[in-house]
Amino acid sequence: MHAGDSGSEFVKRGAERPTFGKRGFAPWTDRTAQPLLRIQALRKRFGGFTAVDQLSLDVYQGEFFALLGPSGCGKTTLLRMIAGFERPDSGRILLDGVDLAPVPPHRRPVNMMFQNYALFPHLNVEANIAFGLKQEGMPKARIAERVADMLALVKLEGLGRRKPHELSGGQRQRVALARSLAKRPRVLLLDEPMAALDKKLRGETQFELMELQRQLGLTFIIVTHDQSEAMTVADRIAVMDRGRLMQVAPPKDIYERPNSCWVADFIGEVNLFEGRVGADADSVEGTAFGRLRVGRKIDVEPQGRVWVAVRPEKMRITPAAPERQASVENCATATVVDIGYLGDLSIYRLRTEAGVEIRAAIANTGRSADQAIGWDDRVWLSFAPEAAIVLTR
Amino acid sequence: MFKSLMKSKKNHSFWQSLVIRLPFGWLLAFFLVPFLIVLKISLSQTAIAQPPYAPTFDLAAGWRGVQTFFAGLSLDNYRFLGTDPLYILSYMKSLQIAAFSTLLLLIIGYPIAYAITRLPRRAQAILVVLVILPFWTSFLIRIYAWMNILQHDGPLNQLLLALHIVREPPSWLSTDTAVYIGIVYSYLPFMVLPLYATLEKLDEQLLEAAADLGCPRWKRFWLVTLPLSAPGVVAGALLCFIPIVGEFVIPDLLGGSRTSMIGQTIWMEFFANKDWPTAAAVAVVLVCLLVTAIVIFQNHAMRGSERD
Questions:
Q1: Does A132 sit within 8 Å of B205, measured CB to CB?
Q2: In B, which residues are within 8 Å of A183 by CB distance?
Q3: Which candidate, A307, A353, B108, B119, has a CA 20 to 30 Å from the CA of B260?
Q4: What is the pLDDT of residues A328-361, one digit of tens each?
Q5: How far apart are CA B159 and CA A351, in angstroms?
Q6: B75-306 has which fold?
């Protein structure tokens, strides 16, 4: 009805801005594209602790950007500096080319969704959503209209008169989202928005959030320590550690082409083998797994120190020696130490003759397979040369 | 709440139900029973006897004794309160002083409590101790100290003369001003502590959220801090208002003799006039007034905090 109509109007208004079908959305590869948000050599210290260290970053209009890292890596501090709650020691934050340094938080065209939602307990849902609009001095009738839009958008119609304490955790999360979106911020900052939800609800909410972001065409920056969440929702992920950016790339690249052992190890599980580049430049010698052949030429001079990373799901386990292919090097015998059954996957912990521990993840596709390999079995481990990632640091 | 308490009682063990009933027993023994005794005295007549009122309950006389006892009770004392303006003026005076003092306490206490919460944790603890430090000295001694400070050639007037603020030393004692000074001084901790307790719990992130949504600093105080500290304001106001209405020592030592507060009137009836029944009636009316005021105030405050 009325609320529904205006709800779609809110979305349409958003769609007037440049929106992107997410397929082929990659403004960061376009040299001519102007970033919406530019962070330049940003630095913030708390006492002797450097929270954010010489960090530079560009975020583009319409992007869903994730800041991912272990706790204490500075991701929340970075978000709070964009919102204006923390003042950087040095460096600049530019939004639409305007330096935000002299702009107090209440004048910045960005809004934040807080980790514990920070809903006003003395106001009902409508008043919470209307709070920011009232500060803008928007006429009452338009506020009511916008609030109805927002309630429809987050599917909370009919709950407008409730107080926050009368809502479930998931509903509170939606109110917080609606409140932070109501002013149509240039950038929406989300601080661990799903940390308080249970796992199943979190999964659904992730997809809803992506859908919402695509509909509205707004720019979202999400802070999370949950890598699967970042991988699911984001167009690009910035992996942070100790105040620095380790890698900024789309989820697939972060996983398939990490730029360092740290990132490879932080995102998902990985088996790392240290060695030296062979004379033919497409093999690595002297690893605990023996001589490893990799899929492409290594851009390091022979005898240079490198690491070969292999994801557990790229490992193959066979009861007998694998058929002699080109990759005769990439196999070894090992003993099964432990099997973790996860339902869809089984995680195998194995030990090679040399005493190196290897992890392998095998998809449980067939029912008959479950008896094939058990504890203490001697098996053959192997992986394809293309599965190997060569890292230089 | 009471109902749910009763319902859940079934699952409780003997000791649990004892613990639950203990406060009720306490209230019964030390509040309700004494109140009923005072109520009974207020319905009696003065008598030159021990105790100084009649009728008294005579168990030996049996059923006839009970009948004479109830026949002897009357509402005469309450009618008497209405005829003498002394009592009405006294009530008015008490309510007026209590209301105005409570307002003063709020105006002075809120900024103090708010300022304490803005400080680092350690400093907060020290300041809270400082707020309650005056309690370590006897209340009476502190009021005597104020008599000394406020007397004609006392430190206050000497200071005012030395600073050339006044040419003639004003007389402070025996004025309402002195009563206000004494009350505000004595009751400030009762206002500051509940306010501090609510303000201290206030989630800093709510203020950030308000700022994020475009609310400037002064407005954040009005729209977030103040409404969320309403429970503290209500608690502090009740904690001050109720005892101030019945305050006896401060107006007696610092106040004038023209109009007395209700506490002084009760004292006078009890000890000077030996008129226990009238004193009891004054006290019962005071309790009724206060209970009505509290119920109205709390209902209003509740609705206020529920409202958006």
A1: no
A2: 213-214
A3: B108
A4: 568 788 888 888 888 888 888 888 887 888 888 8
A5: 89
A6: MetI-like fold (1.10.3720)
